[in-house]
């Protein structure tokens, strides 16, 4: 089973695309280190205070996949520089 999450975030303290990309790369690197997930920015690449990332994970059952995705979202929420606004989960 594949669980896909699209996560929109706002960056309130970024003043340029360089600031946003530095923060985003730090967050993506941490997610890839801690979890076996694929992560990529999928929208708003040219907006410096907004992003949408896609996160995909594969598991043999729904329950473990949902638990793992909740831990991933907790890591995203742990970054004080950003606010997670919209999260959509989809089973593929």
TrEMBL record:
Residues of the signal peptide: none
Domain of life: Bacteria
SUPFAM superfamilies referenced in this protein's UniProt entry, alphabetically: Hypothetical protein TT1725
Pfam families to which the protein is assigned, alphabetical: DUF503 (PF04456)
The protein's name in its UniProt record: YlxP-like protein
Native source species: Caldibacillus debilis GB1
């Amino acid at each position: 089973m594949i669980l896909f999450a699209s996560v929109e975030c706002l960056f309130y303290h970024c003043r340029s695309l360089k600031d946003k990309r530095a923060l985003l790369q730090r967050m993506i690197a941490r997610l890839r280190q801690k979890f076996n997930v694929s992560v990529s920015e999928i929208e708003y690449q040219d907006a410096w205070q907004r992003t949408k990332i896609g996160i995909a994970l594969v598991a043999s059952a729904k329950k473990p996949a949902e638990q793992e995705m909740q831990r991933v979202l907790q890591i995203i929420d742990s970054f004080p520089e950003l606010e997670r606004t919209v999260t959509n989960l989809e089973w593929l």
